[in-house]
Amino acid sequence: MTKTINQIRADFPILSREVNGKPLVYLDNGATTQKPQLVIDSISKYYENENSNIHRGVHTLSQEATDAYEQARVKIQQFLNAKHSHEIIFTSGTTGGINMISSSLRTSVKPSDEIIITAMEHHSNIVPWQMLCEETRAKLKVIPINQEGELLMDEYKKMISSNTKLVAFTHTSNSLGTINPTDEIIKIARKNGALVLVDGAQAVTHGKLDVQSMDCDFFVFSGHKLFGPTGTGILFGKEEILNSLPPYQGGGDMIKTVTFEKTTYNELPHKFEAGTPNIAGGIGLGVAIDYVQSVGFEFIEKQEKELLDYATQELLKIEDLRIIGEAKHKTCVISFVVDGIHPFDLGTIVDKMGVAVRTGHHCTQPLMDFFEIPGTTRASFSFYNTIEEIDVLVKALDRALGMLR
Ligand code: 7TS
Description:
By secondary structure, this protein is α/β, with parallel strands linked by helices. Helices cover 39% and strands 17% of the residues. The N and C termini lie far apart (49 Å).
């Protein structure tokens, strides 16, 4: 039986709290999503019943914890449709996954190599590549965008060549909501023999993804944006490519044998998982994925489209409000500016009315420079949001603008 929206909202305890004496209207899902009770319970259940270290002990607790953690890995493998569970590496988040790859590529990138990113990347998919290019003297190239916030694919086709070592791009923009033509970008990269890393941080919550049909080499996301715990994330990497890369960190669990003369490394996925991981978090992420699948992407996509269409229509009724990011193919993220009004002031006032939105550059400063703005106010929706909440947002913005203008 499918749940009603009220039943879904009841799964998320935080959604029934008040902020500043008003019911919370949480519209900052791009930053992080809220957690269903099942996920919260899974973390305390782990510490109450199973807490121990994994992959090390013969004792029952360690085996139970190892089983639970490895089951979570299999859930994530199935969720992304990866071929093997050992292609799923637990990380601390999207940032952790990207840094793992940029660091592991240090030994194979040459000065003549080029790395391509896009103009709409989050800083975490810019800075690690800049650091890598500085170290290796490789060149960083950037695919430009148009005023709607869509990639200029012809420019991409012109800049890619046999010198391109890697194309690293965001599937979905956190600031604009743009959904990029992932399949086409990857097909072109393939023709040129480049590796591909897809930043799926904003994509995983909104629709079904399949890393095999996408044919990317790496796919990264953060657990906390998928209703899971903070400090968790996933790097998917194709088996043969992960096998060919050096490990990221050295330590326990990532080794087969150690002597003072030489260390041999463990098999995948352990080769990339040095040290005691976030065990409770990984288990919680598996539970979050179960939850998302029980809601179903069919429901999620339908609900989010209604929210996006309605919010776009209602926000555009506000005088002098301009939406930044009007791509044809777009997810339920709406960034906007109002002439003469600072986003920080707007965000602060609507918070007094219980409405949580993000303001600022959203860790995409070069993108803000392109639009010649210091930042935006951003409302980002999830399937648990409602049309009534959008009405509250619009009313709160009207009142805030009445005070500020
Ligand atoms: N990539 C994209 C596309 C993102 O949206 C974010 C976080 C990251 C990478 C980094 O994720 P982390 O979990 O490692 O920090 N984006 C946002 C945001 O839009 N507001 O707060 C965080």
